[in-house]
Amino acid sequence: MGRGLSRREFIKLGTVGGITLMFARLPAAQAVQVHSGAHSKNWLNTDGSPRYRWDALRKVTGEKVFAYDYRARDLPGWPEQQAHVFFIKATQADRRFEGVDLSLLGSHLQPDRLVLHEDLERDGIHAPDPPDLGPDFYGRHLLTPKGETPSMLGHPVAMLVYEDFERFQVARRRLQFAPEAVLYGEQTGPVPPPPYGAARYVRIGGATPTDPPLYSPMQDAVIWGAFEGDKPAWPKPDDDNPFIPHVVALKHRGGGVTLDSEQVARESGDAMRRGMDAAQAIEQRLEEARADPRKFVLRRQGYSQSIDPCAMEPDNGNAWYDPHTRTLCLITATQSPYEVARVAALMVKDNPRFPVEKIELLTGSTVGYGSKDHSIFPYYAIAACFYGAGRPVRLANTRYDQFQMGMKRHAIDMDVTIAVDRSSGLFDVLKGEYTCNGGGRANFSFSVAQVAATAAQSIYYFPQSDLAGVALSSPAVEAGSMRGYGALQAMTMTEVMVDEIAAELGLDAIELRRRNAQRPGYPNTQGAVPEGDPRNLEMLDRAAAHPLWRNRETDKAAYEAAHPGHRYGLGFAQAQKDYGSGADTGALVLEFDAQGVLAMRHCTQEIGTGATTAQQIMVQRILGKVPDVAVFGITAFEQLPLVSNEIPFTLTQQQQDELARDPYWVPSLLPPMSASNSAYFIGFSTRQAARFLLENTIWPAAQAIWGGGPAGGQLASGDMRMQDLRLVNGGIGGGGMSPIPFEDIARKAHELGLITGVAVHCFSRWQWASAEFDIPGAGLRTLPVDALAVRYGDGAPDEYKRLMTTGGYHFIKRTTVRFPSTDRNRAGVTQYTAAACLVAVDVNTHTGEVRVLKHHSVLDTGMVIVPELVSGQQQGGLAMGIGHALMEDLPLYGDGPGNGTWNFNRYTVPRASDVAVWRQTAEYLPPQSDSSPPKGLAEVVMIPVIPAISNAVAHAIGARFHHFPITPGKIRKALS
């Protein structure tokens, strides 16, 4: 089922804990990364624009398959025979687990191996515990020990391994709905892990928005809380030793920080106490506002439900342990292969019973959108493979399994207060507590709680704010990092309350937003100033001018007259969503040969967003052609032999300065595919590589061609400069010069011995790192990259070629480097994308059903790379938002997905008829200039449609909803 894979085709990453990590491409006939390499240009129009996605034909013809579809026999070098495994899972989390009863299977269906916690413990196989992710990130146990209460519903208690598929399949079906297979003892009540964390962001601004604040998290400190039961306990003014949780901060969209509690207390204790004084001052200001008739104070409690991400590929993994070579081979569905390999090495190192010296990870396509980011599932597959008796072991969820143990979007309880001046309509105070239910495994719950708190301001400037993010544990199924990452829930609450305030003040809801929207240079609630112009006012003006908004009252009257028993409502909301993680990286190699064949090796993974298409179009917009050869999902670059401690949030400024003296050190090596990071952050490295070749190769080669011939050629009589270069039909031109095909540029560049290949690595901590490089032939250059390697053309002098000793490249050690200050870890975010949504709904007063009639979106996309990809992400995000607003819902406990009975027969997702698929429109703000970068888009579009629907229902029937989803039963109750 594909060609063999030689050892040379494996890409070595490095070593972790003494274990060599290797990455490999799948055989060349299966998935989008599989098809990486040489390819035709049939996906492009004659003008260079994409006709369809780069991987479109493979998708529609079935050539693109996923990790779920592979068996051992499909993988080069793996054994032909395959073992299979499934879990028995706990459906009660309030009693001690005492064992399993397999009598339902009879004698002929008993597993070849039954694996319990005690077997794993005996064999030294534990849940991974990487130090940078905080304690119990992946839970305390892979399987519940006998005598202990399961930490959550759906937690595995046993693995059943079968060497033949038929018996495996029958046994799994027989135990699918057999809770009696799990034996329980004493009733203990729920015993979830300790609470996951509490963080508080307090800010009191200066006299104007641009004046220095009296207190802010970025200027002073984030306040960390302890717990008294499930309630956060904040530092007290007279406490000399405020409690600091072991994990005091988390990478904004992944990764973690484990710092010394005493050190943090020494450095931030006084600042946190002053922060609590500021919080008390804000509470006093609210009390005064409540007593002041010139003020209006609105307090509401809200709830955003638990949802399933419904990724079409269930979690899966196929792993093989070869004891003879001490090699662990793995193929798994993941958004971050590098992270899986790194954590897998930490999990299996120093195991005397199953010694591992090498890990080979096969990567392919997946679609996860957060559901496969830092999931525990690959490590379950690894644990299972040690019990395959030499066979690869496949662990793959059914749909029931996926509902039972797949990560969920967090349910969040919200308690929010907004104070506003009645005469001016200006907001004064935002106070909120956002409590995330993280279920029984820590994962990124603390991070999600922090993001919810820092995102709650939505598009507004608040002079004073006190926002707390609290992450609690519970017996519910684990919640993870996906689909809005807490911002969706918090901003929805704010936007619904803003509409209610507008009604109280008698103001147009968009006008109230205009008065309070963030302007350029205004800080966020952490005290950081977002990049550039947020363009909130421009978006609000467009929405206000739209016929749906202008005609909402006449449309309502006409619709209701024509549809007795139905109410029409029109709602609006606007949000701005951050993108990026606060430790964003990108790396690639871009090169061409003397015949003009352009090749790119890139770290981008395809997870369904079209990133592999977009990265190629970025190259085309700078160099005039897409790569002829493109390989994606690269997890190591021999041209860039970099090292990293991979925990950029643990660094003090002094530590970073010391580490940065090593020219091979960078704060973080490679990105996961998450946080809407591909267009801007990962694409940043793509654009830097292409621009480097434009400046150092294309321009001098073009000068040489245009300047050839008698009297200095066609170039001599004009004033052509590099900034005059343009992409024209036929190649590179501009300034009145004749176009030059890329092939001629390449030939001349090699002839002159110019740079014909470049490898770059970039890093951002809400600010890009930059470094100086002494480049042979170009001199000292300052670039927004932290690592650089180049390849010289065929005609380069021998002294240059002798430098190309690192993967055929010359790794140029930086002379100086400027990494962003570690203080920017407290900034929260600085990159935002704004989105607005108008939604018209029909409310059936008899059934309570809410039907979306039409909707219009306004998006600030920055420079659009591929319009069709933007449209696809917008439509998909809107469908997710509509589902969240009106139908998707999972009970948290007894009748929830942890009991194993949930599938799409019980869980409702929107269909085309639910999302007004033929009655949706959108407009994109034009970029402010031709140098505007693209913006991260995917998550933001699903946010404003949720509060816009709630606001539309309020316009229709006069009742407001702060608890989601808005179901027919809630509508009927409001109308009764």
UniProtKB/TrEMBL annotation:
Domain of life, source organism: Bacteria
Q: List, for all copies, the residue spans of the domain called Aldehyde oxidase/xanthine dehydrogenase second molybdopterin binding.
A: 674-915
**Which InterPro entries does this UniProt record tie to the protein?**
Ald_Oxase/Xan_DH_a/b_sf, Ald_Oxase/xanthine_DH-like, AldOxase/xan_DH_MoCoBD1, AldOxase/xan_DH_MoCoBD2, AldOxase/xan_DH_Mopterin-bd_sf, TAT_signal
- Could you state a single Gene Ontology molecular function term? oxidoreductase activity
Gene3D superfamilies with a match to the protein in the record: Aldehyde oxidase/xanthine dehydrogenase, molybdopterin binding domain
Q: Which SUPFAM superfamilies match?
A: CO dehydrogenase molybdoprotein N-domain-like, Molybdenum cofactor-binding domain
Q: Which residues form the Aldehyde oxidase/xanthine dehydrogenase first molybdopterin binding domain?
A: 296-517
Pfam short name (any one): MoCoBD_1
Protein name as it appears in the record: Molybdopterin-binding aldehyde dehydrogenase-like protein
